Amino acid sequence: MTDPAATTARKTGHPRLAIVVLVAGALLLGLWGAWRSFGPIPPNARERLESQARKIEMLEQQNITLARSDQISRTANQDLQGTLADRDEEIAGLRTDIAFYERFVGAAGQRHGLSVHDLQLKRQGGPGVWHFVATLTQNINRDAINSGRLTLALEASTDGRMRTLDWNTLRQQPSAAGVDYAFKYFQQVEGDIVLPEGTMPVRVSVHLRPKSGAAVEQSFAWAVATGGADAPRAAATTVESGRQKGGG
Q1: 214-248, pLDDT tens digit by residue?
Q2: What confidence score (pLDDT) does residue 235 get?
Q3: How far apart are CA 188 and CA 141, in angstroms?
């Protein structure tokens, strides 16, 4: 007759053996993990770490060098652009000067009497103070000295009204003398003027009073004379009191 207990044991297996297997497996996993964490370091691990550190330092240095090189290139390019712009401006000025000399001194140059070729004004340090440079020319009589005095007058808006400021007002002197000039072909005449507070300049006129010959008056837009407009200098108009005499 079959023993019921033995039959039941065969159906359920050996639970103790299973537990022992599970415990042994856990111990093995624990030992493997401990070995990975606390096991011996490979003999070349320090060399690997030092090599990686050197590579990182080298890459960082290369990055810094490239950044500096890029900044230097940008700065050099900006300086080059500024230098080229200055050279272009200088070349344009030299070409203008050459054309000027050929026009007034050259044998084939057009003959003309006393005139104001150019007028430039620049702001100075004081309030309302402006420095002017007037270029005077003549080549009708190349053997004669053209001499006289120069004064300025200013058309301006003051308190919403147009008015003319004469030389005495601009010089802040009751009987201001004009600026003397004397030349054969051309001369630059310089001086300073003072604009009253609240003055809005519109046009500046140059008056030439030669010792002999007719007086000359030539006007320039204030924006042109001060370089605040792109209009050409030739935009100025000339008004002569009587007929210009040669060699005046």
Answers
A1: 899 999 999 999 986 433 343 334 443 333 333 33
A2: 37
A3: 19
Predicted TM-score of the model (pTM): 0.55
DSSP three-state, residue 148: strand
Q: How many CB atoms lie within 10 A of CB 189?
A: 21
Place of tokens 């070409």: 95
Residues 221, 234: Cα–Cα separation, whole Å: 11
Q: Does residue 209 contact residue 178 with C-beta atoms inside 8 Å?
A: yes
Round to whole Å and give the CA distance between 119 and 209. Answer: 17
Q: How many angstroms separate the first and last alpha carbons of the chain? A: 160
Angle at CA of residue 202, ends 200 and 207, nearest 5°? 120
- What pLDDT is recorded for position 40? 55
HSE-up of 228 (CA within 13 Å, CB side)? 11
Q: Which residues of the chain have pLDDT under 50?
A: 9, 229-248
The closest alpha carbon to 236, from 207, 204, 213, 208, belongs to 204
**Residues whose CB falls within 8 Å of the CB of residue 151, separated by 6 or more in sequence, listed in order:** 167, 176, 178, 179, 206, 207, 209
Angle value at C-alpha 195, between 146 and 188, nearest 5 degrees: 25
The CB density around residue 39, as the number of other CB atoms within 10 Å, is 9
Which residue type sits at 62? Q
d(CA 83, CA 121): 26
* Alpha-carbon span 206 to 40, nearest angstrom: 99
